[in-house]
Known about the structure:
By secondary structure, this protein is an alpha+beta fold. Helix content is 51%, strand content 10%. A hairpin with a 2-residue loop joins strand 1 (101-105) and strand 2 (108-109).
Amino acid sequence: MDWIYNTSxxxxxxxxxxxxxxVVIIFLTRLIGLRSFAKFTAYDFAFTIAIGSIxxxxxxxxxxxxxxxxxxxxxxxxxxxxxxxQRRSKVLNNAISNKPLLLMKGNTILETxxxxxxxxKSQLIAKLREANVTNTNQVMAVILESTGDISVLHSTSDTSxxxxxxxxLTDVRETV
Length: 176
């Protein structure tokens, strides 16, 4: 029964550390901003995983709450600085961010772009169903976003790709 509960388990310490780490994350997120946990780039994804790992090690190992809080604060400050620099430097932004990629233009599936993005046609079709597309003539565009999400722009009537506002397609790559 030791695998369920062991009297040497620091249950109270883990509980108190959870509360403290929760308060630290809320405080730092309010201070630095919600952008801290946004999912815009691969960097953001790696950052979120790192924070989760720090929280885990703080709550389940000999890492102190102060050490865990310092590590989290350091990463959040780094994320804040990177987001600032990313806004200021187009070169850094291009190095960190992926550009969205067009997967369908109107009802035409762009096979080369699917292959480049390593997305199978069946996955694309599943996303169309998820977006309640009942006919490919309803599709205006399907875009692989820089976050890895797939956006389906569609209409209930036959509408062309050209009807999409230019601003919606800003930075979207049509070809690889």
